[in-house]
Amino acid sequence: MSDHESTYVPKTGIEKWLDSRLPIIRFGADYMALPTPRNLNYWYTFGGILMLCLVIQIVTGIVLAMHYVPNTEMAFASVERIMRDVNGGWLIRYVHANGASMFFIAVYLHMLRGLYYGSYKAPREIIWILGCVIFFLMIATAFLGYVLPWGQMSFWGAEVITNLIGAVPVVGEPLLIWLRGGPAIDNATLNRFFSLHYLLPFVIFGVVVLHLWALHTSGQNNPAGVLIPKERTAKDTLPFHPYFTVKDGFAIILFLILFALFVFYMPNALGHADNYIPANPLVTPAHIVPEWYMLPFYAILRAIPDKFGGVLAMFGAIGVLFVIPWLDTSRVRSMRYRPTMKVFFVIFVIVGLGLGWCGAQLPDAQVVPGMPSFMLLDGQLNSYLWLTRLLTAYYFAFFLIIMPWVGLKETPLPVPASVSEPVLDGGIPEKKG
């Protein structure tokens, strides 16, 4: 599919003039006509959903920036003014706040689909790596945005996370001072976070363009995980438009219904009540917790007793995603034909949900009589802590041990010779040899 030739023909003088200087219309037309595997299912619609989420976040963010005041004395009040006095301000703010959660729901499903179907394997390593860059930038942008309302959870979340940076040897302290703009979180910090939060979505958009460019070059993966040879392109593919634009459109409509359900009926369900209290440096909340989509990484951070070790584990949990193409040793892409790996993948999904649950729990220790001393924390057993450590161990083992080992030892099921074979031949792959 990377050998797809352009079929666009400029029709007007303006199109011909523009095409000879900046072939942007040709790029769009070629993308619409891109040969796409005919067996793509609805798990492949999250790319379009994510693009819509990004546009919504950028547009609503620009409007909110027109009214927001990045000052510690006025930030909280400016958010309330947006909600009460700006025409449609409540809607813009709720769309932006819930849009972040919808963005992460879609990106997690998108990444899990890529893991399950082996979309990171050659020749698509760059597509996967660029996707991981987007994910990392999303986390950074979300954290910066969480600080801006300047409620209790905003302030103390910033205090906790920025203090973690100070735990890095040698460069940690200077980096902490630079990020905060001083020795403590204040106006300079809020200004920096506001500037970076406004900038990073446009950086994300630029990386998305590279992501789509790499996809256009290497071609789309498919649920069967088989490469489509040039001689079978006509039989195994369909033009992206209208076949898959219609499918994407239907999925987007369903996603927008879910989005609207949160915006109009439970806009604060995914937020924290303490963030409706103005920031007070003298009053520490009972439980400092990030947004739900960061809870798994927050749990990993808390699982490590050493502060710097926790920081390494948290960033390592994201960093390991970048090297997955070289950790998976299996020659079969799709887990449809890898029964053993499929079981470990289901456990991995459950572990991810479990880490999110553990990250949301209060850090209070629980006394369990008769427990061995090595399982005690300050003389008490913290059950959530040890469950979190167990789940964290599996998270890293999945990538660093299970994925390479199973790829070498597993006997996969027969893989179809083409994407159309399971349908046209009754689902029975050709016998090899």
* Tally of alpha and pi helices: 17
Strand order of the largest sheet: 1-2
Mean pLDDT: 90
Helix content: 55-70%
Distance between the termini: 28 Å
Q: Supply the CATH architecture of the largest domain.
A: Up-down Bundle
- Alpha-beta classification: mainly alpha
Classify the fold: give the CATH topology of the largest domain: Cytochrome Bc1 Complex, Chain C
The CATH class of the largest domain: Mainly Alpha
Return the domain count: 2
Q: What's the helix-strand series?
A: HHEHHHHHHHHEHHHHHHH
**Percent of residues in beta strands?**
under 5%
Gross morphology:
globular
CATH superfamily of the largest domain: Cytochrome Bc1 Complex, Chain C
Keywords: Electron transport, Heme, Iron, Membrane, Metal-binding, Respiratory chain, Transmembrane, Transmembrane helix, Transport
Pfam family, one: Cytochrom_B_C
Protein name: Cytochrome b
InterPro entries: Cyt_b/b6_C, Cyt_b/b6_C_sf, Cyt_b/b6_N, Cytb/b6-like_sf, Cytochrome_b, Cytochrome_b_C_euk/bac, Cytochrome_b_N_euk/bac, Di-haem_cyt_TM
Description:
The protein has 433 residues and is mostly helical. The chain folds into two domains: 30-285, Up-down Bundle (Cytochrome Bc1 Complex, Chain C); 289-421, plastocyanin oxidoreductase (Helix Hairpins, Orthogonal Bundle), CATH 1.10.287. Helix content is 61%, strand content 1%. The protein has 17 helices and two strands. The protein has helices at 13-19, 24-32, 46-65, 75-84, 89-117, 125-147, 152-165, 172-180, 187-218, 233-236, 240-265, 295-303, 307-322, 324-327, 339-360, 383-409, 421-424, and strands spanning 35-37, 237-239. The protein has a two-stranded antiparallel sheet with strand order 1-2. It is globular, with a radius of gyration of 24 Å. Residues 365-371, 373-381 and 427-433 have low confidence and may be disordered. It is found in: Membrane. Residues 14-224 form the Cytochrome b/b6 N-terminal region profile domain. It is a multi-pass membrane protein. This is Cytochrome b.
